[in-house]
């Protein structure tokens, strides 16, 4: 693979991560509205965040690897990692600092798995 193809692949992965973040923002806004105006219990907030994040990364991985057409496993995983590292850094800067907990591990794991699945699906539907 020549240098230009590596750059194009990198750009697609970053675009997939940005798309996933955008989808997450819209979906979490809708989720917040539902929590505010319905009887949905606040006990479901954490689960809702994990589901929204996983679906967003799945879609970002699918869309980014659809055009790459190879290594869906790896490229989708990178979408999930870039997404989570961005989220972790932004939340660490905007809150009281960087915290690492079981919840963080679960979010990273679900993001990587969703990215891998999205990448595999994206490569296969792009053919």
Features:
127 residues, mainly alpha, 4 helices
Structure, explained:
By secondary structure, the chain is mainly α. The chain has one domain (3-125). It has helices at 3-37, 45-68, 72-94, 102-125. Helix 2 (45-68) runs parallel beside helix 4 and helix 3 packs antiparallel against helix 4 (102-125).
Q: Work out the number of β strands.
A: 0
How far apart the termini lie comes to: 19 Å
Summed up, the domain count is: 1
Largest sheet: none
Write the SSE topology.
Elements: H1 3-37, H2 45-68, H3 72-94, H4 102-125
In a nutshell, what does this entry contain?
With 127 residues, the protein is an all-alpha fold.
